[in-house]
Write a structure and sequence with these properties.
The complex is a heterodimer of chains A (223) and B (397).
Chain A lengths: L1 E3 L2 H6 L1 H13 L15 H5 L3 H15 L3 E4 L2 H10 L4 E4 H10 L11 E5 L12 H8 L3 E2 L18 H4 L1 H17 L4 E4 L2 H7 L5 E4 H8 L7
Parallel strand pairs in A: 1-2, 2-3, 4-5, 4-6, 6-7
Helix pairs in contact in A: 2-11, 6-7
Chain B lengths: L2 H21 L3 H19 L1 H14 L3 E5 L2 H14 L4 E4 L3 H5 L2 H4 L3 E4 L2 H9 L17 H12 L7 H16 L4 E4 L3 E3 L4 E6 L3 H6 L3 E7 L3 E2 L2 H16 L6 E5 L4 E5 L2 E4 L6 E7 L18 H5 L1 H6 L4 E2 L2 E2 H11 L2 H7 L9 H5 L6 H14 L5 H13 L4
Parallel strand pairs in B: 1-12, 2-3, 2-4, 4-7, 5-8, 7-12
Antiparallel strand pairs in B: 5-6, 6-9, 10-11, 13-14
Helix pairs in contact in B: 1-11, 2-11, 8-9, 14-15, 14-17
Classes of the chains: A alpha/beta (223), B alpha/beta (397).
Bound molecules: iron/sulfur cluster.
The site of iron/sulfur cluster has 13 residues of chain B, from helix 12.
């Protein structure tokens, strides 16, 4: 399996890459990463730079074709699945769900209350709703926000808004965070590094699904 | 918009959301929704025939009809009519199309808004763009509104909705005593019957339509095959805009006011208008993307749009609010206007489409428009830098 980290987990939220690799090792997944991994082109496609995106698509397809690909990022997932042709792609939340169901990772459930933010790319656009929830519920109590699944509120980072209009991205993150706080959860979980980046704040702990499992899933790496 | 205005707007939107979400999923409204989807699709596919049919039907009904290719054309037609009637003051009803052609900015005679929300915004004078198609002033609190009314009308009302309404109403009615011309839009046009359908709650459109001359400006995208279709459209619009099945009033105008009660001789202008003039406006519509023209103007997209909730009517074009408005601005105006209206403010999240009765894929439309916009050089600097980073380092960062 090829673990395609994506630019955010590879460069900015490296703790997500770290947690992901530890989980993969723990579950005995045979995987490799690319030393010279290239941007999938998602940001270019969403901001109108088609020719440049096409370039990334062509370059990446050469190395990705024929691999079973795993992504951390919801944006990479959608792009590799929909904008590339003929790739076999899986999001980490889907793999984790399989691993949990097959008892490949031993998790311990606590009575902690957590909530989950559906990323637009993963949920409304690609219909991945259940898998991350199943994984979370094997470890903690999931308390849902007002807007969930296909009705989930965008975190504010998508479509190039975070770079072009940071104030709008902040304002939107605030709305989403206030919904999370209303659930009285202890942790807000996302399955997208880019959402996590936009939702991070001083009051509520925000974790990627992989980090959450490593930190609160009761996993034993010495086994 | 000010933070306090955004806060009030979000509160009003939450009320609308609650009301409309309880009604929009019931079986009869679901049936209506798919019926209207079919009607709009059919109307687009047969737009030329329906347009010609509407022209014929209007003529048969003694409604004068004129075609305006651009805003300027429409304004010239209006200028001529107002001159003919020597109009000093005109009664106006709410209309996105009149906002689109910039009627108020163009005319230097006294235009009186008859819709309460619009009248409040008109009295506000500055920063007075509407925030919702049917709730234009839903970002203003009652005390702000009282302040606006007191200052502009020289009165002293308290922050009491009823008091405010009464003061504005009597002022509007007094000003309209001498008005001989009314002007409005239309919510839907029936081609077969040559009828125009208008919905309202205040009764104000009735006032406008009872003036000697009633001018109606409507986009060519408002034409549907029949009166039943037109009623379906406006009913769905009402449901999604307000959460109610119907408005208090639904005016169907199919000709000037007339009577033949004396020896069967036709007389015009008994109570209502002696002349009804319809201006059918293109203004970029015939170039627009099909799905953009499905819009029935309910505003449910902006109520649910997280970007709109964050920044308000800065995201949108003129009276066309939110992402769908941004898309239309390219056809009504140009690429630059589209960029300035917020082509890149959209996170492409797709919540609007999910909440649009016509499922207009606004995020896809905008994503595609960005391709053309970057080609002609209208894109945010930050995106240009990111593109360079990817090109050089294979990473946006
Ligand atoms: S785009 Fe859809 S939701 Fe928005 S105003 Fe038009 S019909 Fe209503």
């Amino acid at each position: 399996m090829l673990y395609f980290r994506g630019c955010t987990a590879r460069e900015k939220q490296t703790e997500i890459q770290d947690a992901t690799e530890r989980l993969l090792k723990l579950a005995g997944v045979d995987y490799h990463i690319l030393d010279d991994e290239k941007c999938c082109g998602s940001v270019l496609l969403r901001t109108g730079f088609v020719k440049e995106a096409q370039n990334q698509i062509e370059e990446n397809t050469k190395v990705l074709k024929g691999e079973k690909i795993l992504t951390s990022c919801a944006g990479c997932y959608k792009t590799l699945k929909e904008d590339y042709e003929g790739l076999d792609v899986m999001h980490i939340s889907q793999l984790l769900n399989d691993l949990v169901n097959d008892n490949k990772i031993n998790l311990k459930k606590s009575d902690m209350n957590v909530t989950y933010h559906d990323s637009c790319h993963l949920a409304r656009h690609c219909n991945v709703f259940e898998e991350p929830r199943n994984v979370i519920e094997s470890v903690a109590n999931l308390v849902e926000m007002e807007n969930i699944r296909e009705n989930s509120l965008c975190c504010g980072a998508g479509g190039g808004v975070k770079s072009a209009y940071p104030q709008i991205a902040d304002e939107m993150a605030k709305s989403r965070l206030s919904q999370a706080k209303q659930t009285k959860c202890e942790i807000l979980i996302t399955a997208c590094p880019f959402c996590k980046r936009n939702l991070e704040n001083d009051e509520l702990e925000v974790l990627d699904l992989t980090e959450f499992l490593m930190k609160y899933g009761g996993v034993d790496e010495t086994e | 918009m000010k933070p306090s205005e955004l806060e009030t707007m979000r509160k009003s939107f939450n009320t609308v959301k609650e009301r409309s979400s309880s009604i929009k999923d019931i079986p009869s409204i679901k049936r209506l929704t798919s019926r209207v989807q079919e009607i709009k699709k059919y109307s687009f596919d047969n737009k030329d025939e329906l347009f010609n049919q509407a022209l014929e039907s209007f003529k048969r009904n003694d409604i004068e009809v004129k075609f305006a290719e651009t805003s300027d054309d429409a304004l010239h037609i209006i200028d001529d009519l107002l001159e003919e009637y020597d109009a000093k003051v005109i009664a106006k009803a709410k209309s996105n199309t009149l906002g689109e052609i910039g009627l108020k900015e163009h005319l230097n005679i006294n235009i009186i808004e008859t819709d309460l929300g619009d009248r409040i915004l008109q009295l506000k004078k500055v920063d007075n763009k509407p925030v919702h198609p049917t709730g234009p002033a839903s970002h203003l609190s009652v005390s702000e509104i009282a302040g606006i009314v007191n200052e502009s009308l020289g009165v002293d009302v308290g922050p009491e909705p009823k008091e405010i309404m009464e003061v504005v109403r009597s002022d509007v009615l007094k000003r309209l005593e001498s008005a001989g011309v009314g002007i409005s839009g239309a919510n839907a046009i029936a081609a077969e019957e040559g009828s125009l359908v208008m919905v309202h709650n205040e009764g104000n459109i009735s006032i406008v339509s009872l003036k000697d001359l009633h001018i109606i400006v409507a986009g060519i995208d408002k034409i549907v095959p029949s009166l039943e279709d037109a009623i379906s459209v406006v009913k769905l619009e009402t449901t999604f805009a307000t959460g109610n099945f119907v408005t208090s009033y639904m005016n169907v105008i199919s000709g000037p006011s007339k009577t033949a009660d004396i020896e069967k001789k036709l007389l015009k202008n008994m109570y209502g208008a002696e002349r009804v003039v319809v201006i059918l406006l293109d203004n970029g519509r015939s170039e627009a993307i099909e799905e953009c023209l499905y819009c029935i103007g309910c505003g449910n997209c902006i109520v649910h749009c997280p970007v709109y909730n964050a920044v308000g009517n800065e995201f949108g074009f003129n009276n066309y609010l939110g992402g769908r408005g941004v898309a239309m601005s390219k056809f009504i105006e140009d690429d630059e206007t589209c960029f300035n209206s917020g082509l890149y403010m959209c996170t492409l999240c797709g919540l609007c489409t999910l909440n649009c009765p016509l499922s207009i894929p606004t995020n896809e439309i905008l994503e595609n428009m960005r391709k053309l916009s970057t080609d002609v050089g209208f894109y945010p600097k930050a995106h240009g830098n990111i593109m360079e980073n990817v090109r050089k380092n294979n990473s946006p960062y």
